[in-house]
Fold this protein.
Amino acid sequence: MSVVSRPETESFLVPSMSHRYVVSMWKMFFFSLLVSTTASARETWLVATLDWPPYTCSKCHRNGTAADALRRALAAQGIIIEFVFYPWVQAQKNGGKKNFVGYFPSWKDEVLPGFTASQSLFYSPVIFLERKDKPLVWKELKDLKGKTFAVTRGYGNTAEFNALVKNGDLKTITVLSEDSTLRKLVQGSVDGVLMDLKVAEHYLKNDFARYADKIAINPKIVENKSLHLAFNQYNKDKKQKLDGITLKVPASF
């Protein structure tokens, strides 16, 4: 009887356990489907950007301080943001494509025709980097007449700086990247580099730390420039979602 009772008990239990397992698996399937559907329904912004550490950076923690601040601000509205990194001129070009919302971050005078600038999201103090053996002494930009500066291709710089370059009072050497401008300075090919203060501090602390005895930040601020997200023609209506928002951008992570 013991031999007979064992199969009978097993034949009863096995289907019961199998049934509970199947029900559990179906519940998990429908839950994952619900989560997936909810996530896919959330608004997603694809934004073109550049490597401009510490603000935006493909290899930095959370893509950089400004990228993370923008991500957090939009997440509060249920919006997901994804960044695609390019050289600056290419970022501006690709930001105009229909699958992109635009490009970020941009000084106001770097917002190209056909794009709409968000309200100011944070500010960028612009300074000069200089050689320690030949510091830049100036009260007004015109005092730097005859000096040569390395500038990055596609960067807006400042209106006064550009006017002096156009008049021939200042000379520039245009290169493809910001770190290339610093290499020109280290080599002594130029007298200075126009750069955002936080970006300059980042480079001096990291990539160019070994040149701390040669180059330094000039103490005088050239201009405080506002930074924006440039919305393309297909997404200019999204601008209102950033109106009234000031990003809390830390100096570094």
In short: The beta strands are 43-49, 79-85, 102-107, 116-117, 122-131, 148-152, 171-175, 192-196, 215-217, 223-231. The mean pLDDT is 88. The first strand starts at residue 43 and ends at 49. The first helix runs from residue 2 to 41.
